[in-house]
Specification:
Layout lengths: L1 H13 L10 E2 L14 E2 L2 E2 L1 E2 L2 E4 L2 E4 L5 H23 L4 H16 L4
Helix pairs in contact: 2-3
């Protein structure tokens, strides 16, 4: 893998692009998780090895299960519903509650797939 990363860095430099080693992540999937190879190096820095990361709004885990992707928006929606409940308790009108729901809570249900 280190040779592939070196080739990628070379290609990027040929296109006048830089790859930031501090922002680069590595995830091992499948059998590699048990027999982990040495960490990758990029521009003198060790690439961070993660088990879950977020790419374009989608949570991807090394087990390739969707639990992390589903749990993140669900917990966010739960806290926002609590805020809506508090607004109702303090006497907000139905129109204000509907406005809050459609502008703050409903967009979270349309999370990336």
């Amino acid at each position: 893998m280190q040779l592939v990363v070196g080739g990628l860095v070379f290609q990027a430099s040929q296109c006048h692009m830089n790859i930031n080693g501090k922002k680069t992540k590595e995830m091992l999937i499948g059998q590699l998780r048990r027999n982990a190879p040495p960490s990758l190096m990029l521009d003198g820095t060790e690439v961070e090895r993660v088990t879950v990361f977020k790419l374009l709004g989608v949570h991807i885990s090394d087990s390739m299960k969707e639990a992390q992707h589903v749990n993140a928006p669900a917990s966010k929606v739960a806290s926002r519903l609590y805020n809506l409940k508090q607004l109702k308790r303090f006497g907000a009108s139905t129109e204000d509650l509907v406005c809050c729901y459609t502008s703050v809570i409903l967009p979270e249900f349309a999370c990336p797939v």
